[in-house]
Amino acid sequence: MVFGSVNVDHxxxxxxxxxxxxxxxxxxxxxxxxxxxxxxxxAAAETHKWLMKDARVASSGERRGAAAVAxxxxxxAKDRRSKRALAAHGVDVSEMGSIDGCETGCxxxxxxSEGENCIAVAPGANAHAGRMTIPRCDVLVLxxxxxxEANYAAVTMxxxxxxxxxxxxxxxxxxxxxxxxxKEVDVLIVNESERERLEMFATTTQPKFDPGMTITTFGEKGxxxxxxxxSFPGVNLxxxxxxxxxxxxxxxxxxxxxxDKNEIDTVGAGDAFVGAFAAALSEHHSVISxxxxxxxxxxxxxxxxxxxxxxxxxxxxGKGGADRMRxxxxxxxxxxxxCDTKERDRTILSQTERVSPEVFHGFCNAPVSTIVxxxxxxxRTVF
Length: 383
Fold this sequence. Notes:
This protein is an alpha/beta fold. The protein has one domain (2-16, 28-376): UDP-N-acetylmuramoyl-L-alanine:D-glutamate ligase (3-Layer(aba) Sandwich), CATH 3.40.1190.20. The chain has 11 helices and 14 strands. The chain has helices at residues 36-53, 55-58, 82-88, 148-161, 179-182, 192-202, 269-282, 287-301, 322-337, 357-364, 368-376; strands at residues 2-3, 7-13, 28-34, 71-72, 74-76, 97-99, 105-111, 117-122, 139-142, 166-170, 187-191, 213-217, 223-226, 242-244. The strands form 4 sheets. It has a 6-stranded mixed beta sheet, with helices on both faces. Helix 6 (192-202) links the parallel strand 11 and strand 12 (213-217). It is globular and about 60 Å long. The two termini are 26 Å apart. The model is unreliable at 63-67, 249-263 and 337-353 (pLDDT under 50).
């Protein structure tokens, strides 16, 4: 289940991003449904549908046919579009609530010809998300476009109904550091700049808690997972890391596959990564499988304009669709099996401190849910 923001995105695409005090003309304009929470819910729903259909990918997880993705968030009373758009992706919207006298949250998204972007957000009804009720769930995904007290209340409600719920926090945007909330987080997902800003916040806040499992995304350079100290026998992840590169275009060694890259922009790629990771986690996929699936879905998102995957886009067959997704993940999984025979700059996984190959591969092939459960038995350390 995803709890978070709903926005209306006003997208401007021009030759370059404006400097301070400058107006850039000649931009294309689009109005789209957005919000980090809603985008992540759609990505989770689309990933879930794809995993359920593609047995070759789902075989590494635990198929749950009836599993559903739900979204809880607040929107403006006059907004008739945002809720319908989520429902069209197969998201359960029964717990969404409208707020009288409020507009739906709004974002201004500026994108240049290279696909780079900058975004400004007005919260609108998202400021009242704390009024919503959280139903029972196994995985709870949060972001920071709603007030911090709303996120903490959501965790409290979820853990009251299910003490074993896995809490995933995408700390974006980094507007605050809440040690109370961080103490409850099982998986933290941030990009490079968010990680740096979060650490800056944490240095002035006491107490500081280790979030357990930290995933850092590096855009086209991939993603890393580290920080799960004592979460797997023989592994201390304070000195051990798992790295998965972003899905790359076809090269000479990948003869016959269809992994060509046609990047349009990076808006929404982070949300696609988070939603896909949560969907794979809920299906009990392994560490490496969750990261591979999330990386592939984020790459797919870059081929679309806007911040949200198109409905059923992961189910499309042929180049750029389900075949490309499956090939991307098989490519990553194959490299994972061969990681100990490759050079560091060629490997899918890296060890910053040598551990035995058996322990290393055992960790990579362990379900994320199992590692989270193991981690809860260990007192949280200083962040």
